[in-house]
Design brief:
Rossmann fold, five-stranded parallel β-sheet, alpha/beta, Arc Repressor Mutant, subunit A, 12 strands
């Protein structure tokens, strides 16, 4: 098959793991499996993992804890699985670094489509080789390396956060609605709520802004725009 990516599937329900594994392998992905948070972290540290499907409810470490530990060292795309239906729970997952989420029960075919879409967006984000700086170097964005620096120090953005920041920063002053950000940055096949954009914007602001330099402005009732500087 054409896919050469390795995916780690983490869930304490063996049936779910087996079904997801079968669907992903059918698409040509190499699949690693873990039934606990500790095993997931051990596998991630030993293997080259390109994507993680992560359940929130694990017997030892929670999915949130696993996500936080992985985000310390890697920006690998993470799709969270959750039985929690409240919007606040889903937003919390995005706030700690997940790129997307699916609520159980879910369609394995849709999960594969989400995985494929996120990986495709990640690959497409390496098109430009330019480096853009703002406010005399306070913020620097290297599109070829997918790196962002604040005051010379590299900061960590998830692939989704980088995609959104790239779109905004390349269109200074242009107002993007939430729907436009989803379509242009996340792709037309993104199935999440438009309010998930708010969570991603909040994360980006926390990482790139300070009291002196504000980069993203909220246009109430419409969306967001990048101020530059």
């Amino acid at each position: 098959m054409e896919n050469e990516k390795s995916i780690l599937v983490v869930d304490d329900e063996e049936q779910i793991v087996n079904v997801v594994k079968a669907y992903l392998e059918k698409e040509g992905y190499k699949v690693f499996t873990a039934f606990s948070g500790k095993d997931a972290i051990d596998i991630f540290n030993l293997e080259t993992i390109d994507f993680i499907v992560l359940d929130l409810m694990l017997p030892d470490l929670s999915g949130e804890e696993v996500c936080k530990k992985i985000r310390v060292k890697s920006q690998v795309p993470i799709l969270m699985l959750t039985a929690k239906v409240e919007e606040g729970d889903r937003i919390n997952g995005l706030n700690i670094g997940a790129d997307d989420y699916m609520v159980k029960p879910f369609s394995p075919k849709e999960l594969v489509a989400r995985v494929r879409a996120i990986l495709r967006r990640l690959e497409n984000s390496n098109i430009k080789a330019d480096i853009i700086e703002f406010n005399n170097g306070d913020l620097a964005i290297d599109f070829s390396k997918m790196e962002v620096r604040k005051k010379g120090k590299q900061i960590k953005l998830t692939p989704t956060e980088f995609k959104i920041l790239s779109l905004l920063s390349k269109n200074i002053g242009k107002v993007f609605s939430r729907e436009e950000l989803i379509n242009k940055a996340l792709g037309f096949d993104f199935e999440g709520y438009d309010r998930t954009i708010d969570a991603h914007i909040k994360n980006i602001r926390h990482k790139i802004e300070d009291e002196k330099n504000k980069y993203i402005k909220t246009i109430y009732g419409v969306g967001y725009k990048f101020l530059g500087g």
